[in-house]
Amino acid sequence: MKKVNIFAWFIFILGIFYFFLPLFATLEFSLRMKKGVYSFEAFRVAFEDPKFYQNFGYSFLWAVLTIIFSLLLVVPTAYWVHWKLQKIRPLVEFITLMPFVTPAVVLVFGLIRLYGKPPLNLTPTPIPLIAGYIILSFPYMYRSVDSGLRAIDIRTLTEAALSMGAGWGTIISQVIFPNIRVAILSGVFLTFAIVMGEFTFASLLSWPAFGPYMEEIGSMRAYTPQALSLVSFGLTWFSMMIMQSLGRGAKGEEQIAVAH
Amino acid sequence: MVMDAKPDSHRTTGGAPSARPPKSRINWSWLGVVPFFAFAIMFLILPSLSIFVRSFEGPEGQFTLDNIFAIFHGRDFINAYRTSLTISLITAVSGGIFGFLLAYSVILGGLPSVARSFLLTFSGVASNFAGVPLAFAFVATIGNAGLVTRIIENILNVDIHARGFTIYSIWGLSIVYMYFQFPLMVLIMAPALDGLRREWREACENLGGTELHYWRYVALPILMPTLLGTMILLFGNAFGAYATAYAFSGSFINLITIVIGAQIQGDVLYNPGLGNALALGMIVIMSLSMVGYLTLQRRAARWLR
Questions:
Q1: Whole-prediction pTM value?
Q2: Most buried among A168, A252, B48, B183, using CB within 10 Å?
Q3: Among A3, A56, A106, A203, which would you mutate to test the B interface (most chain B Cβ atoms within 10 Å of its Cβ)?
Q4: Which CATH superfamily is domain A42-255 in?
Q5: Is B150 helix (H, G, I), strand (E, B) or coil?
Q6: Hey, is B287 helix, strand or coil?
């Protein structure tokens, strides 16, 4: 079955074409800012804008906060479920998959209606934004950590450490964490890629971020949006490359994301 | 659920000895998952629940079905749902078929293994490359001054936009969505195709089956649940998308997500209950597709282990 297949080549080349044509067109478009010559003018303009760095910084901050709280929430829960509460694993899994059923725009809608007025007015704080991002990150974070934990014998490791007199701090930091570090990092970088380009939550909750900034530039200028688009693509590419080089064995399943 | 355990029946050592066997001691280990569930209830369950409840609430808080009926009376809402469903269906089916063929070509089509790892890496990136930047990329490709538009104009002397083609249409948006749809299919189908055992093909060949027999009676039936299940996933993926459509077409295309987004930004419908009902409609459609997905997933798990 290892004969060269013309049909397979045709499909493959078509796929590559679909992948690269928009990227190439975006690059070409972004270079056309000066009439008649190709130049990096659009990139210069894009990087000159102080608001670019401001919004980029905000997105970075949201990403870091999301990752920290998501890890604090997901890692102990996944660990605990593996060790003590195998029974409720389907329930936890179901909850972490719910973001697939609840589109971002619907979740924002619910959050604003619920926490946008007293008695619990949270919309002046970034809590709904971060909470929404954490929810968004659940499927990837939980699945990465869960598959990492599944690969090691959590019960034996924990009990061995306990019987040797290790405290909980030691168990988490010396035994569990090093074993699932790769799994955690792949969840972290996927979450990073998702939050950095996210638009729906930030825009509808009116927080500064890279996504709404790009949209704003898109409605004001020509050519610079395409430069920003390439920056964003580079960022996604970068995160995915790190994930790939981290988890040689990581299956494609962990890279799956929903559209924003 | 597990949390309904009554704490007071524990630690009653001072009182009368319990008649129950010692094994039925209360399991305190659920305390470890309280933070997770508290968070999920507060920021996921309650918001969804409030949408559900308020969909059936009138202006004075009384129970009503008016909001639900209003969806079916307003032609705009039905159209918005229809547009969203159409685009989701188009991109799920065509993205699913193309993604499957692509996964097939790199895994079983005899291409060099470089092609395979390259495609999988790129699929990981492309399936995550959505939203605002994706919209800009396609404006630069097939927009009014896009590369492809200009090439067609220069070579064939045809102005596709003058001929009635516009990217701000269902087909235009479908082309854009395809960019993240078929890579997702590739990512899910690749392991499934890998899971097809060599023995199955050999058994088929030994029984005198041809390539066609193998696909018709062995491989496709085994893959079918995964294939359909993933298409459902693609469907939901497109159905819930907001940012791409918003940045791409503004309000040119009346998707249901765009309508709900507009309702959030300002009560454009002048009826908060109606907004909730529209959101509820999305949840119902997504839930139905998820049930279908999980059912098919269970069937797929039988063979692909």
A1: 0.84
A2: B183
A3: A106
A4: MetI-like (1.10.3720.10)
A5: helix
A6: helix
